[in-house]
Task: structure prediction
Amino acid sequence: MERTILVAGGGVSGVGAARMLLDTGASVILYDSNEKLDREALGKKFPEREIEIVVGELPESVLARVSACVISPGIPMKAPFVKRLREAKVPIWSEIEAAFRHGKGRLCAITGTNGKTTTTALVGKILENYYDSSFVVGNIGTAYTQEALKMTEESVTVAEVSSFQLETIDTFHPQVSAILNLTPDHLDRHGTMEEYIRVKELITKNQTREDTCVLNFEDKEIRKFGEPLPIQVIWFSSKQRISGGIYLEGSSMISELSGERELVADTGELQILGVHNYENAMAAVAVSHAMGVPMEVIRKSLREFQAVEHRIEFVTEKDGVAYYNDSKGTNPDAAIQGIRAMVRPTVLIAGGYDKGSDYREWLRACGGRMKKLILLGATAEKIAKEARNLGFTDISFASSMEEAVKLAKAATEPGDAVLLSPACASWGMFKNYEERGRIFKELVRR
Result:
């Protein structure tokens, strides 16, 4: 590792990267462009460690000393100091790149617009049930840099990776990768769908003929990308038989991964709902198979696996009304999966930060399932306008989650469901989707 590393971003991933780099013996400068950031509070996160902290404008004297920069995923590539780093020809690495350079063992990495967390958690459970040393890292909640130095040559790791992290990889090289789906998201950051897709596909950048990529056959963009790939490709499909892959046949999940047709599970045996989750499960089976896990271990783990928190998560049933938390539905395509999983008349709570998404397809998918729409956040009026254009008028507005839950309760009767599935990011009203989901659950249980 180079002598002096600039770690940009004083948040969780930045602090995690700084700690890892310090443990490797590197000199670290922790930088944040927010000049109001409390340096003393940041310094206390590094007890008995020597770390230089810079906030505000990045001085030329600091820029001249660094040989690489590890950048937090939340920092856009258009930030002024990033331009200066590039002009100075300083390599810019994502947190996953820095971690990969120090981690050991075998790695599988999962990306896609939706389903990453569920698929990663399921793969993590399967690996844990077979290998002695396994790690689950990335966007799922535990920073890759936090675990990298604990890994050995015998370790296996599954990482959930985002487009923000893939933008700045260099040597990052998973032996097994997966792209679950590609639908419009984060266009406020990437600008165009073409650029978003290009960045997602970087997950295979350093893979070789010996490596494997698991891909969704029903996604046209992914199919176009995967067919000429010069690596081993495993396809999964929820609609048709895939020779040598894994697919749904009615309610049966069928694998031909070992060259012979075999039943993995019946969807009725699983504790996760919806076709999108069956796709996630098939991807997880394919990834785990490519990582060397026997099918009997995969099958048992699959049947035991429970839904990830905040993703179509059953909260409780009160007065005959079922409440579901789908706070992780942070874009319209994810929210489509949430409403499609509902089998009761549903009061839908939605809205939040505006990422420039188009909400029409999502609202169309709500179809006859949506009994009432309750909106909050910056996108409330925009979504309401689209809903009215589609002929849906039973809409209420809430200024807080507490008000939204009260309005939802008042609109229900026994046999209904209430679904929090925002189709938007949480920023502005909540720290993250996890906080939004936890608050919703607390209010419901009260």
Residues 353 and 425 are 5 Å apart (CA to CA). The chain has a mean pLDDT of 91.
